């Protein structure tokens, strides 16, 4: 990747690649990714852009790309999702828990239990539901193969079905060459030709094809546990940096207006607490179960 002229960094997912911590399937892990961007910009300021960044991921990393588009939507200019999970188990048919029996024990540990026992935890990781409301600009590239036995292609097909103008979708099959086979982007490995996707998504990053962006000053956001944007932050169940179980497994829709500083929060997973931060302004609400207006001050 560096050969394209970018500063490339690969943060280890929790509990993998020598990284410490316990994986939690694109919830708290997304905070780590944001922290990496902050760290790189602080410690390598002369070598990186202070405004432009891109993210790519493969399999579980692809799931994190989608999660970042939902939870930190305007942090990245470009995202490249390779056969990622758009739903960890909320949908009884399309959820990854339902489709991948060999990984269910791991998911139960990461997320807390089965979808039947902790449905809200899986709903809060169905980032598919937040893409069209939250990732309103920037650009998302999606790559998948119809023969993928690890993550069913319908995880990406359902993204394509959203018909978002800022999504480029690529699906390969047995007649394609190359095919986006589930695996790492390894040079010279004919079983994992995903290195070639970089000719599209990474070249666009270097060329500056897609502009830096911010979420609109007003609109609707889907909060899957939390959302952090350049204009505001919303945390469910706690006040920033959710503690164990605090808000990570809750979902709400929020109609917001940063000009009037008002946020109408509608809980989707039962009564919840809300913390909203907009610059130096903030506001809270406790135990709400119906649409509630929070005016930050």
Order of adjacent strands in the largest pleated sheet: 1-2-3-4
**Tally of discrete structural domains:** 2
The stretches of 5 or more residues where confidence is low (pLDDT under 50) are: none
Run of helices and strands? HEHEHHHHEHEHEEEEEEEE
Overall CATH architecture of the largest domain: 3-Layer(aba) Sandwich
Strand content: 15-25%
Identify the CATH class of the largest domain.
Alpha Beta
Q: Helical proportion?
A: 10-25%
Number of helices: 8
State the shape.
globular
Q: Quickly give the structural class.
A: alpha/beta
Number of strands: 12
Radius of gyration: 19 Å
CATH fold assignment of the largest domain = Rossmann fold
CATH superfamily of the largest domain, please? Alpha/Beta hydrolase fold, catalytic domain
Let me know the average pLDDT.
93
Distance between the termini: 44 Å
Give the biggest beta sheet.
Answer: 4 strands, parallel
Could you please describe the fold and organization of this structure?
With 297 residues, the protein is an alpha/beta fold. The chain has two domains: 2-86 and 127-207, Rossmann fold (3-Layer(aba) Sandwich), CATH 3.40.50.1820; 218-295, no CATH class. Helices cover 23% and strands 23% of the residues. The protein has eight helices and twelve strands. It has helices at 29-43, 60-71, 96-99, 104-111, 119-123, 128-134, 154-160, 198-207, and strands at residues 54-58, 78-82, 139-145, 167-172, 218-224, 226-228, 233-236, 251-257, 262-267, 272-278, 281-288, 292-295. The strands form three sheets. The protein has a four-stranded parallel sheet, sandwiched between helices. Strands 5-8-9-12 form a four-stranded antiparallel sheet. A four-stranded antiparallel sheet has the order 6-7-10-11, with no helix packed on it. The longest helix is centred in the N-terminal third of the chain and has 15 residues, at 29-43. The protein is globular. It starts with 28 loop residues before the first helix and ends with a strand. The relative contact order is 0.12.
């Amino acid at each position: 990747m560096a050969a394209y002229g970018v500063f490339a960094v690969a943060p280890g997912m929790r509990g993998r690649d020598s990284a410490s911590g316990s994986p939690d399937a694109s919830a708290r892990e997304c905070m780590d990714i944001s922290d990496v961007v902050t760290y790189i910009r602080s410690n390598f300021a002369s070598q990186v852009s202070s405004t432009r960044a891109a993210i790519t991921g493969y399999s579980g990393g692809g799931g994190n790309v989608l999660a970042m588009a939902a939870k930190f939507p305007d942090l990245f200019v470009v995202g490249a999702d390779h056969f990622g999970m758009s739903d960890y188990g909320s949908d009884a048919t399309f959820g990854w828990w339902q489709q991948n029996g060999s990984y269910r024990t791991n998911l139960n540990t990461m997320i807390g239990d089965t979808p039947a026992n902790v449905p809200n935890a899986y709903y809060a990781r169905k980032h598919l539901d937040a893409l069209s409301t939250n990732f309103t600009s920037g650009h998302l590239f999606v790559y998948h193969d119809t023969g993928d036995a690890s993550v069913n292609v319908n995880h990406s097909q359902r993204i394509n079905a959203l018909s978002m103008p800022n999504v480029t979708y690529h699906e390969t099959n047995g007649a394609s060459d190359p095919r986006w086979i589930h695996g790492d982007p390894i040079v010279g490995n004919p079983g994992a030709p995903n290195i070639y996707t970089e000719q599209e998504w990474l070249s666009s990053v270097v060329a500056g094809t897609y502009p830096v962006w911010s979420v609109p000053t007003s609109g609707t956001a889907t909060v899957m546990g939390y959302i952090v944007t350049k204009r505001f932050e919303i945390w469910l169940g706690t006040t920033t940096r959710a503690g164990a179980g605090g808000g990570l497994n809750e979902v709400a829709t929020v109609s917001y207006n940063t000009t009037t500083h008002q946020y109408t929060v509608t809980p989707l997973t039962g009564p919840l607490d809300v913390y909203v931060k907009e610059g130096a302004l903030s506001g809270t609400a406790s135990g709400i179960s119906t649409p509630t207006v929070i005016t930050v001050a």
